[in-house]
# Entry
Amino acid sequence: MTDDIRQLIKEFGRLPVDVDTLATDADLYQAGMSSHASVNLMLAIEDHFDVEFPDRMLTRGVFESIDAIAAALTELGVQVPA
Amino acid sequence: MAGFRAATPDQAAFLAELVDAGKLIATRVPGIYGRSGAFEDVATAVAALVTAAAAPETPERMAFPPVLPRHDLESVGYLKSFPHLAGSIFGFDGGEADAAEQYERASRHHPWDEHQAMTDLVLTPAACYPVYPAIAARGPLPAGGITVDAGSAYVFRHEPSGDPARMQMFHQREIVRIGEPEVVASWRDTWRDRAVELLGSLQLAVSLDLATDPFFGRSGRMLAASQREQALKFEVVVDIAGPEPTAVASFNYHQDHFASVYGIELADGSEAHTACLGFGLERITLALFRTHGLDASAWPAAVRERLW
# Structure
């Protein structure tokens, strides 16, 4: 799952740094992700994993790191491939 | 009518009172009003108070018409954040037969949009929008950045409502600060506090609230949450017509949003940050009428002295 998330961050996060070098707990906002980019990322993640984030998850914190996004997806029942 | 927001009983009663007293002049469309001389006298005096409060900063003055190049609205992402509020200008695009058909339909008040095409203009949604491309075009900012007094321009929000305080076209008295991030952030905070004092001196029962913009849809909920978490927007609110207090001034820290769109650079070549503040002249005027009565000559002496 984290590889897919990392790929989506590359495509939609518009980060000024190399996404491959980011730790899974690295703060994406600190790394330069704008609020508008985080919305694009949110929509891309919904599309890719075929989920819809409930309103309570539409916050800055949920999209703050690869780990945070993975935790939210897990909570929504997205299965981690074995 | 798309998106019409009906007035609460209190709002409807206040609007009727304003129209009956000749303060506002009703038109066929909710949220579009003429203003009487008495109304304009107050709004003009409020604008002058803001001008005086900004004077020590010696801002550069700019004034723009209430239309914006469509390209600028597209560039700043307005149609993503606020597609429901935008007003786009269309113009006739056809031949003589099309014109005749259009006229015939229009005469019957039937839809006549078939031979209309987008122009390169939209209605200005915020008075500061024309300032950013104008500043960017000059190249890197001088040391210390710049403060621009964008005057009091008419702005448009497509949100028809029966609440007299929710006009579709109204004046924003805006000032813009562009510079180093910490300079811009502290400027926003200083003005936020100054505005509470300024409006308080008019004996309005104002308070300061953390606020969010009316972003559209689910993406908008996330943008609003993000804006709130970062405390990017504050509003001064006051009771005008119930049930909720109404925002009469806002203080907005955009971080690098506008600077990155237009490439506004600091003297050292790094990216600038921007902030703006806007006083809603009609809303402040309405708050004064609601608080002190419709006859301005009978307002408390201290309020009159402050204004005139």
